[in-house]
Design a protein that fits this description.
The protein is mostly helical. Among the domains are: about 1-40; about 80-105. The protein is about 50% helix and about 0% strand. The protein is built from four helices and no strands. The chain has helices at about 1-20, 30-35, 50-55, 80-105. The protein starts with a helix and ends in a 26-residue tail after the last helix. Keywords: Coiled coil, Signal. This is Beta-barrel assembly complex subunit BamF.
């Protein structure tokens, strides 16, 4: 009895999961189709004309947002590479100098020593506090 019950619960859970995930599908949506067929929702509408005209006739897996312009890039000469390297190394040195300057400012000068007045001398013949016991 328990094995049958377990199988029925598993099958029901699987059917619920398939129906729920089927609601996420794009054009194939059985949940939406069932609701539309019984009149619970409006039927799916066709896309407006300007959308149909702007899309290609064939279905594509990937449609770029904007086509990338084709441009030719020539390889840099050795002198251009050395100039770029020198520029980057100068920027690195400047950044390191700024970091060192910021660390010095964050640390600040050495703090002044704290002056504390000495405690008064303790008398040897002080009586202990009275006991409450």
């Amino acid at each position: 009895m328990t094995a049958i019950w377990r199988r029925m619960v598993t099958a029901a859970g699987l059917a619920l999961a398939v129906a729920t995930l089927g609601g996420c599908a794009g054009d194939l949506n059985p949940v939406r189709d069932v609701f539309a067929s019984v009149g619970a929702t409006a039927p799916q509408q066709a896309a407006p004309g300007f959308i149909e005209e702007s899309r290609p006739a064939a279905e594509a897996d990937y449609l770029p947002i904007a086509p990338a312009p084709a441009r030719e890039t020539a390889p840099k000469t050795q002198a251009e590479v050395e100039a770029a390297r020198a520029e980057l190394e100068a920027a690195l040195a400047e950044t390191n100098a700024r970091g060192a300057r910021a660390r010095r400012l964050a640390i600040g000068p050495a703090p002044e020593p704290v002056a504390v007045e000495p405690l008064p001398a303790i008398e040897d013949d002080i009586a202990p506090p009275p006991s409450t016991r």
